[in-house]
Every structure is written in structure tokens, then in C-alpha cells.
Amino acid sequence: MKPRLITLATILTLGIMASQVTAQERQWLAGEHHAHTHWSVKWDKSTTPWSPIKGGDSLHSYLDNAQAAKKYGLSWLVNTDHGGPEHSKLLDEHAYPELLAARESVPEVHQYFGIELDVPAGEHATVMMPINNVERDVLVKFQRDFSIREYRKETRNRNNVGHMQKGIAFLASQDEKPIIIKNHPSRQATGINEWARVTPEKLMTWHQTDPEVFIGMVGTPGHQAARGNRGSYFKFGTFRGADQMTGVVGGVWDHILGNGMRFWITSSADSHKHASIDGRDFWPGEYNKTYVYARNEPADLMDGLRHGRSFIVFGDLINGLHADLSADITNNEENNSASLGETLLVNNGEDMLTLKLEIALTNGKNANGDIPELNRIDVITGAVDPAIANEPNSNSTTKVIHRIDQSQWQVKNNTIALTIDIPRDYQNGYLRLRGTSTDILEPKRQQGNQYPWQDLWFYSNPIFWQQQ
User: Fold this and answer.
1) What are the helix (H) ranges across 30-74?
2) Rounded CA gap, 341 and 304, in Å?
3) Which end of the chain has the smaller Cβ count within 10 Å, N or C?
């Protein structure tokens, strides 16, 4: 029997033929889901109730961010202001009207209504609303009812995992589901696997509450321009710009994937104040990008995020990544394949898989005026197995199986094309990709001076295989 391609999107919404048609129309579209505006306020605590100080945590307007997104090649953007006492009123009365005006001024960028939620028992997360006629009412109600900072007197009752689960269920009940992405998950960690408010157990619990709402986490956080502490992970630094949950091969992300969860990573600028004006941030799209394979319309972009058709990159190291995993490639009959976010069904005895890879390189200079150069591609595989649930914060099966450098590829039409044998070491498993401009084999925690423009990486979301 031939292997068959199954995707969650196909199962839920589309027939096979419709899926094939829409896939032909899709393209790689870069975006940003975590940017702040002047409605991320500070608070004057001398008044009763506290008074908002506009511009307290960012001086950018909705229009500023939209214009920056357009300048740096983004197709989609989510502004995500965070809260305080009754911040939902500012969201309703001020932020949303400004968003509508920015949409009119910069129609080239799909601008989603969002917040950075003060998560019950979990620091911060992006909430991204579908663009529809209830986006305002649903998001205002959600922030009012579930942010731990909305009402000071109720914080103690709200600040628990269960209250966040109720919030996820509320969003899941909408006709069009919003998306939640956990921001900077290890920012409060004090060492490897030394967690604070965000733990792997919480992430998995929230994801399992509704995997189509709580879709994943940021793999490469913002604040990449922060001097001396890239990412502003002050307690325990990033791994060359990556959060440790993503940056460590066989770490937390691999543990979650090894449990069979379709848990995706993104990148975000977390833009507050630009580095050029005594800040620590880049503009949306200037350095961090999340690429989604989608039609250039809002619903399919969210579908791409929700189903892992995406990769993340620093400094425009690459701008396209087509990866197709297949089995029984020598058979002359039609062969199905699985791409990022998808699952390939394979037969017993098919011990070798084939990866066809096409990587589009950036044609020109990035925002720093450099022509980025990809130095190496890493192919990483791991098992999906119930036994991995017993490994705390790790997946011992995950390893780099190929390190492919410039001597092993040729560039044609600004594209690298490779065919790679993938040993099927596990009955059920996954494959993910990583690349860098450096000669560093494994990212380690950085200390001292850091130069993000000379230290570029990309990470893909995984392809799964499963025995049928």
C-alpha cells in the first residue's frame, strides 16, 4: 500500500482535491505577531483609580508599526499591547479605532487585532484575533475576563492554570478561533530546565486544552538588539538568540514533539523602543521574521500558523523553505509526500525516507546592509513514542543526523536544492531543520558582547511520520 498524506487542515476543513488546489496558490509570507504601541501604557498610581500614561512602554503608533512592517517586507502584523487595571477599556476605546485607521493607511499589510495577555500563572502570550466583525468585542471581553492584571483585587483568584484553560475554552467556542502563542517562554528561567512561572507542563496542558487555539511558543524571542544580553533574558541568556526550549537539541520542544503534540514555534520582535533611540529592539520585520506558507489573505495565514506551515529566521538568512518527506521514492507510481506541519503515513518495512529540500536564499541586502550567507543546514530527527513522557524536559532520541555545508550544495537561481536520505530509526518520528551563517555546531548560552547581525539562524517546524 502506498503512503498517504494526512494533515489536520485536510481532515477538518478540506477534501484532498481542494487542498491540492489551494496549496498551489500559496506562497511564503513573512510576518510579526508581537509588537507594542503607545497603548502599552504605564500607570500613574497616585490617582484612584490608576491613570494610564500613554506611551509609557512604547512610543510607536499602530501606523508606525504598519509602515515598518511594509518597509521590511512583512505581509502580516499583530500589535500586542499588554495590560493593567481595566486596560480592556483602552483596547476598546482607543487602540481598536487606531488599528482601523492603520488598516486604511497601509492596506498592503494584514493587520490583526491582538494583545499580549498577562497570562494566569504564565507571564505573557500573544492573542491573535481573526479579522471579522466580532474581533473587537471578543478580544475586549477576553482581556477583561482573563488577564491577571485587569482587576487588582481579583488577581489572586485568576492566577492559576485552570483560569487560563477557561480562557482558551472561551476562545475555542468562537465561530472563528483566535490563536494564542506563548511569548519568551524561558525568560524567567534561572538555568537549564530551571523554570519559574512558565513550565513545560503548563505549556502542554494549555496546548491540550485546545491545540487549535494554544498553538505553540516563540522559539526565537525579541529584544535581539539588547546590548550585552541578547533577547533580554537577564537571568539565564538565550542560546545565540534562541530560547533554550527551542535551542537545545533534545530539549523541551523535542520533548513536546516526542509526545506527539503538534506544537509549533514562531519568532517575534517584541518591539517597544528601537535600538537607534536608546532601546533594545528592532522594528517589526527588521531582524526577526516568521514565514507562513499561505495564500495572501488573513484566514489562510492564520491556518498556516495553526498547522505549522512555517519557519523562523534571523536577518533574512533565507526567505523560502520547501521540504518534502516521502517514502518508497523508487516506485514509479504516484508518491505522496509531507511538508512542514504535515504527517506522512508509512508502511512497515519502509526503513528509508527521502527528503527533498529547496531553500530560497535572500536576493540582496538585509536591513543591516549585509548580504547574508548560509553556511550550514542541520537535519534533526527524533522519535514520537509514549516512553518520552517519562523523560523530564527532554527527548533522548533527538539528534542531528546530517550537517550539510556549502561544499555539499550548489546554488542555482538563488536556490539550494538537495535530496537527502533519512533513516527511519523510529517507527513514528519527526524531522526538523535548522541553519546558520556561522560555523557553530550547537548554540550555547551567550555572555558578554553579542553581534546579532553576524549570528544568523533559521529553524523550521517539523514534518512527522507515522506508521499506518
Assistant:
1) 62-71
2) 9
3) N
Instruction: Find cell 509602515 and name the residue.
Output: 67
Q: Which three cell numbers stand for residue 217?
A: 511558543
pLDDT of residue 35: 98
**2-42 pLDDT, tens digit each:** 333 333 333 333 333 334 444 459 999 999 999 999 999 99
DSSP 462: P
Kindly provide the b/e burial profile for residues 72-103, where b requires at least 16 CB atoms within 10 angstroms of the residue's own CB: bbbbbbbbbbbbbbbbbebbbebbbebbeebb
For the residues 268-279, what does the mean pLDDT come to?
94
Q: For residue 67, what pLDDT band results from cuts at 50, 70 and 90?
A: very high
Q: Are strands 352-361 and 318-327 parallel, antiparallel or unpaired?
A: antiparallel
- Of 205, 285, 199, 300, nearest to 245 by C-alpha is 199
Instruction: Write the CA distances from 220 to 35, 231, 237, 246, 457, integer angstroms.
Output: 14, 8, 12, 8, 9
| Alpha-carbon gap, residue 117 to 87, rounded angstroms | 11
* Cβ proximity of 313 and 291 under 8 Å: yes
- Please, are residues 10 and 338 in contact by the beta-carbon 8 Å criterion? no
Instruction: For residue 38, report the phi and psi dihedrals to the nearest 5 degrees.
Output: -70, 0
Which domains are assigned to the chain?
A: 5-316 (3.20.20.140), 319-467 (2.60.40)
Listed in order, strand segments (DSSP E) in 256-317 are 264-267, 288-294, 310-314
pLDDT at position 454 over 90: yes
What's the CA gap between 437 and 341, in Å, rounded?
A: 25
User: What is the chain's Cα-based Rg?
Assistant: 21
SS3 214: strand
Reported pTM = 0.93
Q: Report whether pLDDT(279) > 90.
A: no
Q: DSSP string spanning 237-262?
A: --BTTB-HHHHSTTSHHHHHHHTT--
Cell of 220: 526565537
- Of the candidates 37, 41, 34, 160, the one whose C-alpha atom is nearest the C-alpha of residue 89 is 41
